[in-house]
Amino acid sequence: MQHGVLSAGSHPTIKMAAPRSWALWSLCGRGWSPVLPSCRLPWLRSCWPSGPLGARPLSQEKRATETHFGFETVSEEEKGGKVYQVFESVARKYDVMNDMMSLGIHRVWKDLLLLKMHPFPGTQLLDVAGGTGDIAFRFLNYVQAQHQRKQKRQLRAQQNLSWEEIAKKYQNQEDSLGGSRVMVCDINKEMLKMGKQKACARGYKAGLAWVLGDAEELPFDDDKFDVYTIAFGIRNVTHIDRALQEAHRVLKPGGRFLCLEFSQVNNPLVSRLYDVYSFQVIPVLGEVIAGDWKSYQYLVESIRQFPPQEEFKEMIEDAGFQKVTYENLTSGIVAIHSGFKL
Ligand SMILES: COc1cc(O)cc(C/C=C(\C)CC/C=C(\C)CC/C=C(\C)CC/C=C(\C)CC/C=C(\C)CC/C=C(\C)CC/C=C(\C)CC/C=C(\C)CC/C=C(\C)CCC=C(C)C)c1O
Ligand SMILES: C[S@@+](CC[C@H](N)C(=O)[O-])C[C@H]1O[C@@H](n2cnc3c(N)ncnc32)[C@H](O)[C@@H]1O
Prior knowledge:
- With 342 residues, the protein is of the alpha/beta class.
- It has helices at 12-16, 22-28, 42-46, 58-65, 76-90, 94-102, 105-117, 134-157, 163-171, 189-202, 240-250, 268-290, 293-305, 309-318, and strands at 5-7, 66-69, 72-75, 124-128, 181-186, 208-212, 225-231, 251-262, 322-329, 334-340.
């Protein structure tokens, strides 16, 4: 698995956002960890004492490194690889599966995330676990429409411009975003590949960059972004607390964290239907459309393992965010959590 900047494009942030140590970063393969004992490379871990007195008793060590992959218990070292395989396998059918499974409802949820963000002109967005670019493209549409409205208002106010001056204002592609930029970061090469193909086909170019990277060890300097989004991504991360700390680190003071994720359904009737639909229908759709039952079984199981709204809110607060709130959508099937780095 190769990790690093895939294409920086003309994004100004990426030029400054060098990984904290290139040498160790590429050596570790999953991102550089400044504290060696926490490096997730099993071979490096095994030759490093786990405490001041060396190795801990095996049972304690085992408990400390176990986690879940859906309903399966796996070691923390294993989980990342398994999640990688899931998204490598579903990447080609990812977008069509989402439309089929949700009858397009996931699009509304993503639109609502953008409405909540309400980016200001010049916003620097980092979309982590950005996959095939759904949030990034919505962001670009939003800021472009916002900038066009502003430009029209200004042009109407300036009565004496020549037609050349007016045309010039419309032609400047970079400027059509009013200085806003989005960086899509994802750990999976296949998902990013699909996203880039989609961007090409739809003509998105300016203000968009793609980076291969781990939510738990982001390859960016501190205080870089105005907004951090993660949509349907954090559930798949091995150490959610580390991902939240990284989100806090890379945001500028005043920056906003926004997370769209499956949550706990708050209506008993919807909950029953949703359970039947999840366990009886979704894996079948996965098999029929994507030829992949297991990945879609993982999807529904991982949803049940994710902490409910209040618990996740506390985790966000523990990472240092303030004014943390959440909003349930579709009876809590998903929720948007928001927090600020103040
Ligand atoms: C591997 O990991 C992943 C892979 C991915 O592709 C995606 C993700 C991340 C996920 C997303 C980006 C979003 C994807 C969306 C979903 C997983 C679906 C979320 C589910 C819904 C919005 C629907 C919720 C359903 C209910 C509340 C229950 C209502 C259900 C029904 C009325 C149908 C009940 C039917 C049966 C129990 C069995 C018989 C039916 C059939 C065999 C036909 C199949 C039916 C349909 C396709 C209709 C589905 C119905 C709806 C969407 C109605 C929605 C209604 C409401 C929301 C109230 C990833 O991590
Ligand atoms: C369900 S997709 C969501 C994609 C996109 N955000 C959307 O809303 O459609 C989950 C994404 O999380 C990515 N992912 C999983 N673990 C990750 C990690 N540790 N760091 C970065 N991305 C990760 C996967 O590769 C996948 O692209």
